[in-house]
Each structure stands twice: as C-alpha cells, then as structure tokens.
C-alpha cells in the first residue's frame, strides 16, 4: 500500500513522504519517498521478539517505528517506547502510531542512545529490540542522503 499527500489522509503526509504497510497491510507506516526506508529485517525482528510477549519494550533506533508498530500489532508488547536520534523519523513514527490507532501504547522520543543511561532506569523494560546499522562507521560508501548516512553505518554509536 502506498499513499501520498494527495491520498486518503489530507494533511497527514508531509512533502516527499509516503504511506506504506507491513504485515500484509496490518501496520501502516509514514516514510520518506527517498532516503532510509524500513526493510524486511524490521518485520522479522518484530516477529521474532513477539514470540515472548512483554509488558514494556524499548526499541533502540526506532526510525519510522516499523519494529515498534509491528511488535504491538503482533501482540509482542503491551507498550513500547521507541528512541531515535533523528527528529524527523520520530515525527513519522508518532504519526504512524496515530494512523494505526496505537498512540496510547507507542511512545517515541528523540534521544541519543549513548546518553540513555541518564534517563532510563536499569531493568525498566522487559524487552529491548534494535535493528542497528550493520556496518562499522568507516566501511563502505557513505550515502549522500543524511538520514541514510546516519542509519546504515554505525556513525552515532558502535
């Protein structure tokens, strides 16, 4: 499924954004048309994590909220807090939660994962998931797109 600014939700999408779906249309996501977009690895991670349902889950590097929203849709958690360093992605995740009617169970915050020890108490979550960058910072080509450059190699942490 793909929708755009001219789609069925007027004013919901910003310029250059699309509405996409996962889990056979069960989960709807707000994403950039170009740049970093969720992949099947996010859905696989949510399915794997949902095998042992949790009360409270933490999604580190949540991006547009794909893992968070899939995890909730699969019954893998009662509530999830998603953290991402990119404000634009957190905004998309919040709109995705609202679009799916999950804004009461999905919260999203802009934060640097390297600083979380200051704001999150130890053992305050039953489950922690992360779909991290797969490459070290100095390896491979760097994307000219700033969101991709931050999401794909591990430049904001290791």
How would you sum up this structure, described in words?
The structure is a single chain. The protein has 158 residues and is of the alpha/beta class. The protein is built from four helices and eight strands. It has helices at 40-49, 66-73, 87-99, 146-151; strands at 17-22, 27-32, 54-60, 77-84, 106-110, 127-130, 135-136, 153-154. The chain has a four-stranded parallel β-sheet, with helices on one face. It has a two-stranded antiparallel sheet with strand order 1-2. The protein has a two-stranded parallel ribbon with strand order 7-8. Strand 4 (77-84), helix 3 and strand 5 (106-110) form a beta-alpha-beta unit. It is globular. The N and C termini lie far apart (34 Å). Residues 1-7 have low confidence and may be disordered.
């Amino acid at each position: 499924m793909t929708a755009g600014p001219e789609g069925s939700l007027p004013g919901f999408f910003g310029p250059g954004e699309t509405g996409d779906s996962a889990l056979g249309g069960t989960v709807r996501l707000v994403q950039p048309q170009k740049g970093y977009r969720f992949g099947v690895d996010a859905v696989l991670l949510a399915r794997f994590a949902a095998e042992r349902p949790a009360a409270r889950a933490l999604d580190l590097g949540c991006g547009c909220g794909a893992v968070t929203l899939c995890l909730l849709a699969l019954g893998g958690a009662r509530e999830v807090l998603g953290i991402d360093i990119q404000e634009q992605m957190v905004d998309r995740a919040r709109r995705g939660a609202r679009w799916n009617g999950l804004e009461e169970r999905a919260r999203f915050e802009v934060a640097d994962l390297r600083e979380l020890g200051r704001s999150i108490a130890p053992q305050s979550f039953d489950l922690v998931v992360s779909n991290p960058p797969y490459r070290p910072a100095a390896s491979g080509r760097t994307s000219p797109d700033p969101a991709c450059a931050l999401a794909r190699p591990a430049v904001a942490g290791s």
